[in-house]
Amino acid sequence: MEQTIYSQIVVPVVKFLKGHLTKHLGYVIFSSKYVRAMKEQLRVLKNTRDNVEKQKQTNDMDNKEIPVGVSAWLNAVETFKNEFESISSEGYGCLNIKMRHKTGKKACEATEMIKRFTKEKKEFEWTNAPIPTGIVYSKTENSTPSSHGVNFKSRYRPFNEALKWLQQDNNKSQVIALCGMGGVGKTTMMEQLETEANNKKMFDYIVPIVIGRTHNMHSIQNDISIRLSGEGLVEATIPERAHRLREKFKIRLEEKKERILFILDDVWQKIELKDIGLTSPLPNGLKLFLTSRDSDICRQIAVSAHSHTSFKVVEVEILTEEEAQNLFFKITNVSKEDNRYDIGCQIVEKCGRLPIAINIIGTALQSQEMHFWNSKLQRLNNNNIDHDLQEVIKISYEYIDKEHKEVLLLCGLFPEDYDIRIEDLTRYAWGLNLFKGVSTLGGARDSTRTCLGTLIYAHMLIKSNKHGCVRMHDLVLSFVLGVVSKSDRAWIINHGNVTQLAGGEEACKRISLTCKGMSEFAQDFKYPNLSLLQLMNGDLSLKFPEDFYENMKKLQVIAYYDMESPLMISKSLHCSTNLKSLCLYRCKLMFDFSFVGDLVNLEVLSFAYCDILKLPCAIGKLVKLKLLDLTGCLNLHVDNGVFENLKNLKEIYMIKALTDSNFEKLAMLSKQLCALEVEFVDKKNQLNKISFENLDNFKIAIGCSINSYKFKNDPFENVLELVSDRIIDLCDSKINQLFKKTEHLELSVKDMTCLKDLHQIGQHSFSTLKSLMVYDCSNLKYLFRVANGLKKLERLTVRKCNVLEVLIQKDESEISGVVELPQLLVLELYDLPNFTSIYPDNNNNMCALFNSQVKFAKLEILNIENMGKLKQIWDCEFVSSDKVEVNNISMLREIEVVGCDSLENLFPTNPMRLLTHLEKLKVISCGSIKDLFNINVEYNVSMLREIEVTDCDSLVNLFPTNPMRLLTRLEKLQVECCGSIEVIFKIDLGYEFEQVSMNNFRRIQVLDSKNVREVWRIRGGEKNSTSIRGFESVEFISIERCGRDNKKSREDEDVNISTVAFPSNIYFHSLRDLKLNKFEGVEVVFELDLNNQQPLFPNLQSLDLHEMNDMSHVWKCNNWNKYLLNPQRHYHSFHSLTSINIRECNRIKYLFSPLMAKLLSNLQKIKIRSCHDMEEVVSNRDDDDDNDEEEMSSTSTTTTFFPHLQSLTFEDLTNLTRIGGGAKGAKTGVIHDQFKASHVGVVSWSLCQYSKEIVISFCNGLSSVIPSNAIGQMQKLEVLRVRHCKLLKVFETKDIHGNSGDGKSSTNIDEESVGIDVISRQANINVTRLSNLKIMEIRSCNSLVFVFTFSMLESLKQLEELIVIDCKSMKVIVEKENGEDRKDVVFPWLKFLSLESLPNLEGFFLGMNNFNWPLLEKVKIIKCPQMMNFTCGESTTPVLEGIHRSLGRYSLECGLNIHMKTHQTSTRFLITVSSARGGPRWTGVRDAGSRHCCHPMRTVVEVEHVDRRWWWFEG
């Protein structure tokens, strides 16, 4: 039996242990040998990698195949090399066994990895076979919208939109166009989309072809053939070659059933599809992808392909300001600390945020000095753009025709970033006769809008956010200014310094000036060939010569904007007899301008918003006048004879200008008008006098005022706004004559029962109507009998109609039918308490808003609010594909539902088609909804981007279990005031769990939801080992005021409810900002689990934790050392965290472990406030014992903790006793505790060492701000503020080498200084240095006796402010030391000194040293009754002008006489003052009997009184 046990158990165990021990002893003994061997093999591996990289690049250039896995192998080797080449081969000494063992083991593991890499490399099979360049193969690289490694968030939307169209069926999107101005990044995005399509294998073949400005069709055809089959074409003619391409496409598409993405990049003109082998319509399986500067060209190609209905345009815009700056400084490699940074920001602004401009200029500025940057900025400010940039814009300019060029040049008259009014351009063009063959202003307006539309399509102009306006890109403006400055045009455009105008008077044809700050125009301001004069922003004092216009006889257009000078229009204007357009906008015309009537050729006259009070009768002489604009001229009086004589007037604009006296005159004129803008607020009964029959363009309001903001999308549309109590008043006015031309109609008629009541109009009377708003119609029962006549209606809004039940009443004559609004985009229904359905279904008892008989095929936005009786939005039959057409409502993008308390379900059970395009969902105050998405997620993939749910107290389930497929496009989630939700995301690893990425998810907010205990609830499967994807793109999370409403006892709580806010197996790669506020039930914020191999929160920058009442740990790990052994986790987890802000978290005892500090290398700011249980900032009380010494020993020698730390703030921490505390657990002896303390001390020392600002307030348990071991190295500290700390000693004063300060040896470990003094005895610190300290403030620290020791003064060279207030025990500011030198003390930068409420202060310094204060400007000494001497030596203050005291300011102009007064005692002492070296020098001696003069200039002053409450200086 014993033999069996020995042979079968003991012998194997001994052999195993022997081998195991031998291996581990080898790690220690042969550590250096293993490292050297590993280094040699690593060198060989690096050479091998370089060879593979070179071979890969060669095959890339030669279009040859690359073995699968090469890219992954190269990346893996590079990562491995970066990780292991830092292993030191110098050894750690014979006695450092643990570090030798660790290094040797790591070197052996690296050697094994190198062998594996070498073996994998040998398996690559390189060939010289060419590949068909169109074939799709798998790639490892991920495509993101970036440049030079800079991610562009503004590109996510167009990128994802284009990607969506690429993924959809051809019947929805067969032709896709990426459009934008030259250099904006269209081709770059196209290449990224191509890569993404490659990676996802969306197509079998991708055929990218560059067309270019001057294309060669033979070459293009050959490229297509090579991409398709790897061989070129041999046919000679274009038709023959095209036929051969069609055959190749047919083989791929029809016979092999392959999918092809055909990319045409840089398209400048329409391409004949037949020439490139395509048929019309395009064949199935082929998707055409275009990039162009001109979206209209792309539209023409789509029309020729019979794909105009499936044509999609994606606009690529310029970068945001932040993105542009990031790109520029990435290229130039300039940081914020660089003195070129501010200049760079200005250069980026001048580049107009255009990527190509930033690339060209940034590359030119690389490694250049400041003067070169200044020169480049000056050139850009002068609109002198680089040649390459000019060529980019010139190409686009040359491709537009003459009229378009003229309109573009007109836009160049305006300043940068100006919103250019389209109507102004029309009036300029009319006055200059730019449009040949156009005889009416309406025709000129159409031509102007056509030109602008073409220029916008060509991306030479930009759509403005301001209605009726366009804008010009800065670089295009610079190009235009270069064009118009040429000799053949010689325009003068100056919106900067106008003190000197350029020459060239004879040739100049157009002038545009901004006159701000200009005092006068010179007498020789003469431009005889001038045709256009535009002046802007002239001050009231601006002077014009009386003969200003005499030498401008060829003027055709004058346009003045915001000119206040009363002399801008003078009588000499009559010399400009060719003037056709006079446009004044917001100008002050406080004078008689009757002479304007002499301009007999004037056709356009505008006084818009000029506040003129009278239109003189002389205006009636303008017999050729066609347009008169009086908009905004309140209380205007029109003289008799004005309107009567204007026989050719066709357009009049009088919004805000119609008065009683003007009404009759307007009525006489109305028959000849074709355009009218006017408000009839009080004239409803007289409207029958106005003729509307000839109006083509109008904006007319009856009973109300016009709100122009409503028409910002199209300010030229025809508008009617009708408000009346009685419908009869409107019918009598014959306003219904305009209904057939009306595009926007607003109705508020109290007694109207349906729209037909308006004079019995027919169903087709609103055939041009685009927008209809009906509101406050108290008797409205339904809107239409039949709505099918509204073929152009795009927007329908119904508001506050209390009796309205249905939108469309079924006609009794109808048996069945479908209500169709084919162009309806927006439907808004507000405050309709009895409304139930758009079109009632008599066969269904349950009324729903939409049913199978409603067909709104293009509806994109649905807003419903306060509809108390609405129970269903979708009829159950609505989503049944066998009963309802697929496109009934297939384009819905936004749904907003507010205040519908009877609504139980938002979606039907199978809403797949509704979610196809839905991007934004908002649900507010719907008290009956329990499940937001009561659907089967398995087959549902939606386009939802934003979800907002607010004040839905019955809502229990926000999403179904495992909702990731439903949220693949989600960008933002906000949940607020939903009292029944307990969990946001339910994840069941055992229930058909599937990893789904949500690459767009950016923002999560959960607010004021009292029952939310978990954001993520994970059930089933291997909970801690399965990494969960889907949240890796989230950048911002805020969870505030959530938790259980009525908190149960711990015994009653569900044991399955997690107390961890962020489980370690959910991957948050992109999270930057995290805020948790009153998130009840959370005990641990971050769980660090050994099973998770991914780095945690690698991009988290800001952490805010407020009022987390249950939180005991921010970070918690079950084994720190094992966790940190993984290098990837070690170097990347939390490494971007820069700011920690914790407030009112009362259970937390400490912030982090010293081992956690290894992960926080970029920390910049720590702020902790009102955490009353916090005892330490750094503590190892919860760390595991194993290998602590090894980990921290290696850390302390190789890691610099917190090198970027800027600020430490601790406020109201009543139990804080130290920044770094003692050893955890029971003490086992001084040496053990000393090591434990050292772990914490290293980290707390680093916290203090690198901080630039330290603020400590109301920390009454803290005895020392900074441990003595840290003081000597604190060369970055600039600001130190300490307030209301009762027990505080600001600096640790114990002797550095173990002496207690009195010369006696100290060998015991003081409990209060463990972690401070122990380290200080080990450190080699001889002098306390605060060499960068600039501001020091100490308030209400009653245990402080002094602030500095004398030896510290040498380091205070940068001190600028010193403030000490309300410290009851303070005796001196600087404490004497035994044996200090008698040398002079200098505070070279001190400017402000304040000593206040220091009842025991005897002086600043009581030694005999002299002090020099060369920059001291202000001194406050208040309530210091015991202060007999400031310094016993002399003090020199050359710039001090006075001393502030409690009763005022004391001047030192005539020297310094000090009177110290008291009500209790009378003490005499001597103050001596000298003004040597330019300023007062002063000393003080207690006993007047010792008076003497040591300098002839010294004044001896006897002071008789000392005030023991305060002292001050009096002259």
UniProtKB/TrEMBL annotation:
Residue span of region Disordered: 1177-1198
One GO process term, biological-process aspect: defense response
GO function term, MF aspect, one: ADP binding
Coiled coil stretches, renumbered: 35-65
Superkingdom per UniProt: Eukaryota
Residue spans of biased composition, Acidic residues class: 1182-1192
InterPro entries (alphabetical): Apaf_helical, At4g27190-like_LRR, LRR_dom_sf, NB-ARC, P-loop_NTPase, Plant_NBS-LRR
Positions of the NB-ARC domain: 160-333
Annotated Disease resistance protein At4g27190-like leucine-rich repeats domain residues: 745-846, 852-927, 940-1043, 1058-1171, 1318-1427
Keywords in alphabetical order: ATP-binding, Coiled coil, Leucine-rich repeat, Nucleotide-binding, Plant defense
Pfam families tied to this protein: LRR_RPS2, NB-ARC
Family, as annotated: Belongs to the disease resistance NB-LRR family.
Alphabetical list of PANTHER family matching this protein: NB-ARC DOMAIN-CONTAINING PROTEIN-RELATED, NB-ARC-RELATED
Name used for this protein in its record: Uncharacterized protein
